[in-house]
Design brief:
The protein has 446 residues and is α+β, with helices and mostly antiparallel strands. The protein contains 19 helices and eleven strands. InterPro entries: Bact_solute-bd_prot1 (IPR050490), SBP (IPR006059).
């Protein structure tokens, strides 16, 4: 299995543009090359990186910042083949335990243990556990998230509607139909339709889980044409096609975030980290107008995902101590203070350190969403989100190496169904074939 993934990574690497080798000597000293995802919180870190360089003379930072899908491919290719392009990589709780088991990542626990004040016990327990392997941290979290639903309180009040604290998906569909106002340019809801296992499959998988669906049964038989999976897929596609955003098949987190912040959606189901942007006066027209409630459910008590963007050091990185010094800076308590005082407390990386939620300025800035975020992360337990037992871990992903390719292929089928290019049944039949191939390889090794 590992060999197969490595071969796929080699092929991906050959198709990607190269970059300067990690630990390269720059004009002012050693250069750390950092592969990072182009999200708003990461962009803040890049803009503040001069603070790190001033505190660490002779160390220069070079960021390779890419959209999520491209970043995943490039980081996976480089790390799997031990290419050495990067000193620091941004990965998630999907990759961390698998890559740690493969020997691709540096064990960070010794660095954590000998760094005064780093305080790993301050990390939210479920986030910390998701980045651990055999009791040691192999990545440290930059921000953590679950998923919840944002809704426009003013539009609900105007329509005479009341949002429950724990809504069902049917209630959300009914609300979306009533709030959809195409003449005013307001969609009833915004949902991701953009292809990518970390794009449209993230929200869709939580919908599938709570409808009682799963990717595989206990014997690794693919289940993507099961009645439950079909029901979930039809629900999601119909909802976004009938009451979702224009161009939904190409809309991801960023596109939905822009639409919601510009007042063009009545509801948005997505990552809890969205709330900081929604409440940012510099980027949002709906500041103070949103409420936040738990991820909608059907047959389960909760359905929100568990995810963290984190930083890790490839095993082949040349200057691991300098790389750790950067990780310590970007994921430490002082960085939270730096972001809050520089850009405003609503832009602080959320869902990571418990102490963040004790900062008075942050509590005030995040009063609309701080507790819902913590509640959502606390409720996101992989063992509680499936109706029937499954042979894999993960909520919004299947925790196996093949899921990067499998999930991407299935996400493309889902996106095509949203675009009306194929029917839901056709999309699932093709997806089932992809999943069967993966399932067979696991049955053979049992």
């Amino acid at each position: 299995m590992r060999k197969r993934l490595a071969l796929l990574a080699v092929a991906a690497l050959l198709a990607l543009t190269g970059c300067a080798g990690a630990g390269a000597i720059g004009s002012g000293g050693r250069t750390l090359v950092i592969a990072i995802v182009a999200n708003p919180q990461m962009n803040d870190a890049i803009s503040l990186s001069g603070e790190f360089e001033r505190a660490n003379p002779g160390v220069n930072l070079k960021f390779v910042s890419l959209p999520e899908n491209q970043a995943r491919a490039k980081i996976t290719a480089s790390t799997a083949t031990q290419g050495g392009e990067f000193d620091v990589v941004m990965i998630s709780n999907y990759e961390t335990p698998q890559w740690a088991a493969n020997g691709w990542l540096e064990n960070l626990q010794p660095y954590v243990d000998r760094t005064p004040g780093y305080d790993p016990g301050d990390f939210i327990p479920s986030i910390k556990e998701s980045l651990s392997y055999n009791g040691s941290l192999y990545a440290v979290p930059f921000y953590g998230e679950s998923s919840f639903l944002a809704y426009r309180k003013d539009l609900f009040e105007k329509a005479g509607l009341t949002m429950p604290e724990h809504p069902t998906w049917q209630q959300i569909a009914d609300f979306a139909a009533k709030l959809d106002d195409k003449a005013a340019g307001i969609s009833g809801i915004c949902l991701r339709g953009k292809p990518g296992w970390g794009e449209n499959l993230a929200p869709f998988d939580t919908v599938a889980n709570t409808f009682g669906a799963s990717w595989f049964d206990q014997n690794w038989n693919a289940q993507l044409t099961s009645p439950e999976f079909k029901q979930a897929a039809n629900f999601y596609v119909d909802l976004v096609r009938n009451h979702g955003e224009v161009g939904a098949s190409s809309a991801g987190f960023s596109e939905c975030g822009t639409r919601y912040a510009q007042g063009q959606a009545a509801m948005w189901y997505d990552a809890t980290v969205m709330a900081g942007t929604n409440e940012d006066p510099e980027n949002s027209k709906v500041v103070g107008k949103s409420g936040y409630v738990a991820a909608p459910v059907v047959r389960t008590q909760s359905s929100g995902w568990l995810y963290t963007w984190s930083l890790a050091i490839p095993k082949v990185a040349k200057d691991k101590q300098a790389a750790w010094n950067f990780l310590n800076w970007m994921t430490g308590k002082e960085f939270v203070q730096l972001v809050g005082k520089t850009y405003g407390w609503n832009r602080v990386p959320p869902g990571c350190r418990l102490s963040t939620y004790d900062i008075p300025e942050y509590r005030e800035a995040a009063k609309a969403y701080a507790q819902p975020t913590l509640d959502s992360i606390d409720a996101a337990k992989p063992e509680n989100v499936h109706v029937t037992p499954v042979p894999y871990t993960g909520i919004q992903f299947v925790g196996i190496p093949e899921f990067q390719d499998l999930g991407t292929r299935v996400s493309q089928e889902l996106s095509a169904a949203i675009a009306g290019q194929v029917s839901v049944d056709e999309a699932l039949e093709q997806s089932q074939k992809y999943a069967q191939t993966v399932g067979e390889s696991y049955r053979e090794t049992k």
